[in-house]
Specification:
The structure holds 2 protein chains of 2 kinds.
Chain A: E1 3-6, E2 9-12, H1 19-25, E3 49-52, E4 62-69, E5 74-81, E6 84-85, E7 96-98, H2 103-118, H3 134-143, E8 160-161, E9 166-168, H4 178-186, E10 192-195, E11 202-205, H5 217-222, E12 228-230, E13 243-248, E14 257-263, E15 268-274, H6 287-291, E16 305-306, E17 309-310, H7 313-324, E18 332-337, H8 342-356, E19 361-364, H9 384-390, H10 397-406, E20 411-415, H11 423-435, E21 438-442, H12 448-452, E22 455-456, E23 467-470, E24 476-479, H13 492-502, H14 512-519
Parallel strand pairs in A: 1-7, 18-19, 18-20, 20-21, 21-22
Antiparallel strand pairs in A: 1-2, 3-6, 3-7, 4-5, 8-9, 9-12, 10-11, 13-14, 14-15, 16-17, 16-22, 23-24
Helix pairs in contact in A: 2-3, 8-13, 8-14, 10-11
Chain B: H1 20-26, H2 31-39, H3 42-51, H4 64-69, E1 80-85, H5 95-101, H6 103-117, E2 121-126, H7 131-146, E3 162-167, H8 177-184, E4 208-212, H9 213-225, H10 227-232, E5 244-251, E6 257-262, H11 267-274, E7 284-288, H12 327-332, E8 341-346, H13 351-365, H14 371-388, H15 394-407, H16 415-429, H17 431-438, H18 454-460
Parallel strand pairs in B: 1-2, 1-4, 2-3, 5-8
Antiparallel strand pairs in B: 5-6, 7-8
Classes of the chains: A alpha+beta, B alpha/beta.
Chain lengths: 542, 461
């Protein structure tokens, strides 16, 4: 691979890479606002200017500038090299680039910083971006001087509603055009553009439109400053109080990589942030996914229930034992859940196949929905592929409904609360589930199964437990625990262990590690395993 | 050295000089284009054009023939000629006269240039405000089309050429070639990143040559005289700055005008011989040699080139006003030739107000795409307004050079330099005047850009 020199480091590059790209791949960041690895090159912020040393036989390209000499009381004509934007300039073999080591580059960066902050309101105390704002970070790294212009800055529109989700502040905007390029190039809905000119420039929504496509939240995330913020997160939290874990979106089978930001003081999730993974979601997420962090707190089942009445865990387990003791194993159906992790489903398989020894396996999940060609998959479950890898023989939920209707199945041990169906199917399912003598389920959320269940053992949601999910491409990804389990919920694999013991079996797992070891061989040979490629630069945890 | 010529301006002042009959009678009609399209090969056209040493008339002074030679036939994409007639540089008003008074030279130039660069379509991008110019161009194209000069088979050749007039929407930045291409395509007029250069990917992503309108208008003359002979009319032929061009003089002179001369005239000749001297016979305060982006020159400046190898050596020790106006000679005295339209300021003009006036223009016209230009031009203007209002501190005056230096070279297009260079010129040459404002010795309300010239008026009467 050819290489070039960046300061004192040797950087390999693929032909066609720009300097900033090649450096980015090596984990070296050249400061930038407008450049984004997933968008076209705009080279308008001029923050990434670097000095390219002339080759041996080349004359240096210099510019005449003027310096005021306060001692001599006169101007001094000096020369400076022509700097080049690293985001635009292609890397070439043996090229020598100065970034942090060049005084000219340092001066140019400080100057660009100063220019960007010239008419900026510097309203960090009331700005949601504060704490994760590039203007703040780069001020500290590259400027650190006070503002020289002390007059009233240029005023522009503030708190402009761009649509149902996004608010725009033109005074904070650095005109990097990332948002414009994102909606044009990635979302394929060129709804934003720039109007006016010079320092009156502002981003606007196409006349007659709103920013209302399926990817509006990305406006916030491509924006390097506080110009675009989401109505959802505005004024909700200061980011330095939030903690982050690497999570996987539960919204569909794409399995977008995210950071789940939460406040441990209140045990609450606050938002998702897209996490870079070239193989899955690149740098993006859809709106439905972005708001699905709320599922950790909405519509949850948090207490054990017996026959519709809230009870203690001990009472519920006792009731399960009473109901299931001695029933023919053929009449017991095991229902896996595409909404649950591999670990939870593995525990259920241990209970069903190894201990109870029933062959009646089904799976449930959320119904199919909207899909597009960008990120959104029609399968609204995060782990359908995982369940299919784990229990190849699992039949769809409709087969369970038939089994229940015919009376062949009388008892159900299930994971999850949702059912995949249309309105008619939902009614059929409800009738069929009503015929069952016992339904024992471990749901995180309310749903048809939860509704019909005689015994409910509440399970922790993905936000409260570490779990592994297999997306539709067969990529296995781990989602980490953020908040503590709420109410009396426990991770489903733990609940199932307790149920197994209550039913008199010897459950072989007590720790997550036990399950992970046993799962390690699963899916190998037919799919890539655990390829979470994360990038520490673009979407790092605060 | 003044050498009057009359090629581009033959039809100027003639009755209906903008119409085809006048053009045929006075300017060889379309004979040159006929000869080129029917007897020469494409390569021969480019080789011949190179000999003319015609430096682009738009301001950058890039050799036209060399630019044409960058055009390589693309396997699938067509090529385009785009003619830059978005003349908006303050102090520049030459292209407009050609469009209004000799539009057929432009159309004929388009035919030859299209043939030379392998294009079949030429777009003439005209500044919106030039209504007469647009009408005359359109009429000329219609006349040429009616005669079969423009269209499917010009002069019976099998080389179709179409010429279209496209109107801008009134933005100075659209005179920048890539910005113009964006505007031509219906996009926001913002300069593009280079590379790729227009010759690789220009209008609609296709190979494109962008030439100034005067450059194109000179093409028929060039080919009619023979390109080498054309070049040799210039006193700066040896510096590869050939031919004849339109010179303009404006500002505080008695006879502001546009005139065709061979390259080689000096600023002093422009002021006193062409311009008829300064209004009221005052002294010259300063001169902007070729449009507002070119740094200002003062009469007391002299050329310093003691080294005999220095191309500026012949003028060593002389006043900058006695150096011929050429692309490289003006660069040699620290400014630019630009568009060759000399703006004269008489003694009594307030240079600080002139400076602020220019910076207000650049602030207003900055497209705002890249940071240094967007914010820097506004900052310069704001500080100068404060200086004029007597509200600025000496520190703020000191900062001006730093702001300009921080814009210089750090922008996407040359607009940044176009702002910073004149700013640095004014700062360097008019520091005492600026300080006088800061100290409160002068007041903005007394500042004037016009000078009183009753004396000369009386003399003229």
């Amino acid at each position: 691979m050819p290489t070039f020199k960046l300061d004192d480091k040797t950087i390999p590059f693929e032909p066609g890479d720009t300097i900033i790209q090649a450096a980015h791949k090596q984990g070296i960041e050249i400061p930038h606002y407008c450049w984004h690895p997933g968008l076209s090159i705009a080279a308008n912020c001029r923050m990434c200017l670097v000095e390219i040393l002339p080759a041996k036989d080349q004359r240096p390209l210099t510019l005449d500038i003027l310096e005021w000499d306060p001692v001599a009381k006169d101007y001094r004509a000096v020369k400076k090299p022509k700097l080049q934007p690293a985001c635009q300039f292609a890397a070439t073999e043996n090229m020598e680039v100065l970034s942090d080591l060049s005084d000219h580059v340092k001066k140019a960066r400080a100057a660009v910083q100063e220019f960007l902050l010239l008419n900026h309101p510097v309203d960090c105390p009331i700005c949601d971006q504060a704490g994760e704002c590039k203007l703040q970070d780069y001020w500290l790294e590259h400027q650190k001087t006070q503002k020289r212009m002390l007059d009233e800055p240029v005023h522009k529109p503030k708190a402009v509603s761009f649509g149902p989700t996004i608010v725009y502040d033109a005074e904070r905007c650095v005109m990097c055009t990332r948002c414009i390029r994102f909606f044009d190039e990635v979302a394929h809905d060129p709804v934003l553009d720039m109007r006016e000119r010079g320092n009156l420039n502002e981003i606007f929504v196409a006349p007659g439109r709103q920013l209302d496509n399926k990817y509006t939240y990305m406006a916030d995330w491509v924006c390097p400053v506080g110009a675009l913020t989401t109505k959802d997160f505005r004024f909700k939290a200061r980011v330095w109080f939030l903690r982050s874990v690497k999570s996987v979106c539960q919204g569909c089978a794409t399995g977008c990589n995210t950071y789940l930001d939460y406040d441990s003081r209140f045990n609450r999730t606050y938002r998702y942030r897209p996490r870079e993974n070239e193989a899955v979601n690149k740098y993006w997420m859809c709106d439905d996914g972005m708001v699905s962090y709320k599922a950790a707190h909405e519509d949850r089942v948090l207490e054990p229930r017996v026959e519709g009445k809230t009870s203690s865990l001990g009472v519920a387990l006792e009731a399960a034992k009473k109901k299931l003791d001695g029933v023919p194993r053929d009449s017991i159906a095991i229902v896996y859940s595409a909404q649950h992790s591999l670990e939870d489903n593995w525990a259920l398989r241990e209970l069903g196949k190894t201990l109870i020894e029933t062959d009646r396996a089904f799976w449930s999940g959320a119904p199919d929905g909207y899909e597009d060609k960008i990120l959104i998959h029609k399968d609204k479950n995060p782990n359908t592929a995982g369940v299919k890898q784990l229990v190849e023989s699992a039949k769809p939920f409709s087969a369970l409904v038939e089994g229940l209707a015919s009376g062949a199945i009388k008892h159900v041990i299930a994971l999850g609360g949702a059912t995949p169906s249309t309105k008619e199917e939902a009614d059929a399912a409800a009738t069929a589930l009503g015929k069952a003598e016992t339904i024992n389920t471990n749901p995180t959320h309310h749903g048809a199964l939860t509704q019909a269940a005689a015994i409910v053992l509440p399970a922790s949601s993905w936000a409260e437990a570490s779990g592994t999910y297999v997306n539709f491409k067969g990529i296995r990804q781990q989602s980490d625990k953020a908040i503590e389990s709420q109410g009396s919920s426990k991770p489903a694999w733990q609940q199932i262990g307790l149920l197994a013991r209550a039913l008199g079996y010897e459950a072989s797992w007590t720790k997550l590690r036990d399950i992970r070891t046993r799962l390690s061989g699963l899916g190998e040979g037919n799919a890539p395993v655990h390829t979470t490629i994360t990038d520490p630069h673009s979407t790092e945890a605060p | 050295m003044i050498k009057y010529t009359n090629y581009l301006t033959t039809t100027y002042g003639q009755p209906e000089g903008w119409k085809l009959p006048a053009y045929e009678k006075l300017c060889h009609g379309y004979d040159t284009a006929r000869k080129v399209l029917t007897t020469m090969t494409r390569e021969a056209v480019v080789d011949e054009a190179k000999k003319a040493n015609l430096r682009g008339r738009g301001g950058a002074g890039f050799p036209m023939g060399v630019k044409w030679s960058f055009m390589r036939p693309h396997p699938t994409k067509p090529a385009y000629l785009v003619v830059n007639a978005d003349e908006g540089e303050p102090g520049t008003h030459k292209d407009r006269t050609i469009m209004e008074k000799n539009p057929h030279s432009v159309v004929e130039g388009c035919l030859i240039a299209c043939y030379g660069i392998g294009a079949h379509v030429a777009y003439i991008y005209v500044r919106d405000e030039l209504h007469l110019a647009k009408r005359r161009l359109e009429e000329a194209i219609a006349e040429a089309r009616a005669r079969g000069f423009v269209g499917k088979t010009p002069f019976g050749s099998s080389y179709p050429v179409e010429v279209y007039v496209h109107t801008g929407a009134g933005a100075y930045i659209c005179g920048e070639e890539t910005s113009m291409l964006n505007s031509l395509e219906g996009k926001r007029g913002e300069p593009r990143l280079k590379p790729p250069f227009p010759a690789q990917a220009g209008s609609f992503g296709c190979p494109t040559t962008v030439n100034n309108l005067e450059t194109i208008a000179a093409v028929p003359t060039m080919f009619n005289l023979g390109c080498d002979a054309f070049s040799k009319m210039s006193a700066l032929h040896d510096m590869k700055d050939g031919g004849v061009r339109l010179f303009g003089v404006n500002g505080h002179v008695k006879k502001p005008q546009i005139i065709e001369l061979a390259v080689g005239v000096t600023i002093r000749e422009m002021i006193y011989d062409i311009g008829g001297g300064v209004l009221g016979d005052k002294d010259v305060l300063a001169v902007i040699p070729g449009g507002s982006s070119t740094p200002i020159l003062r009469p007391q400046e002299t050329v310093h080139a003691p080294d005999e190898k220095n191309p500026m050596h012949p003028w060593h020790g002389k006043s900058v006003f006695d150096v011929p106006l050429g692309v490289d000679t003006m660069r040699g005295v620290g400014t630019m030739l630009g568009t060759c339209c000399v703006t004269v300021m008489a003694e009594g003009t307030d240079p600080v107000l002139a400076f602020q006036n220019l910076m207000q223009f650049y602030k207003h016209e900055s497209c705002g795409q890249c940071t240094p230009c967007r914010e820097g031009s506004g900052w310069l203007d704001r500080t100068l307004k404060k200086i004029l209002a007597g509200k600025a501190s000496m520190k703020e005056l000191d900062d001006l050079s730093d702001i300009a230096s921080n814009i210089m070279g750090n922008t996407i297009c040359a607009f940044g330099e176009g702002t910073a260079m004149p700013a640095m010129g004014f700062l360097q040459k008019f520091r005492p005047e600026l300080e006088a404002y800061v100290r409160g010795e002068k007041k903005g309300k007394d500042a004037r850009l016009t000078v009183s010239f009753e004396a000369s008026e009386q003399a003229a009467e």
